[in-house]
Backbone:
């Protein structure tokens, strides 16, 4: 475990950010669009997140926009770290499908919000890529 923390210290801090938001009942949807999220300097995006979106064939424009939003960047990094360190393909597939299913829950509430639909499509593309590569 110590080697993991030494190899990916900044990546784990992004995972911690998402964990803290969930643990303290922060509404992640409030900070998932560029109108309300903290904007990051895209040149400082975590390499794990960048590598994942490149492999998932997310376009350069979408990649820049989405990874500049801190919450999206942190969730993307969390997915990359999960995929890297969880060895069970069965578990990964089950969790990715669970994530896709959960994202569809209450979808009619967000049907008129183009920004949330765009974020959904971004994570859908990444998650489907992760499932396909198992």
Residues:
């Amino acid at each position: 475990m110590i080697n993991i923390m030494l190899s990916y210290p900044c990546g784990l801090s992004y995972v911690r950010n998402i964990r803290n938001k969930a643990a303290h009942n922060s509404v992640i949807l409030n900070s998932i669009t560029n109108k309300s999220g903290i904007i990051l300097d895209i040149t400082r995006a975590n390499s794990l997140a960048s590598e994942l979106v490149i492999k998932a064939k997310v376009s350069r424009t979408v990649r820049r926009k989405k990874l500049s939003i801190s919450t999206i960047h942190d969730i993307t990094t969390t997915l990359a770290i999960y995929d890297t360190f969880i060895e069970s393909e069965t578990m990964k597939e089950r969790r990715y499908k669970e994530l896709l299913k959960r994202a569809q829950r209450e979808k009619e509430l967000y049907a008129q919000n183009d920004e949330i639909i765009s974020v959904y499509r971004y994570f859908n593309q990444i998650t489907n890529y992760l499932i396909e590569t198992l």
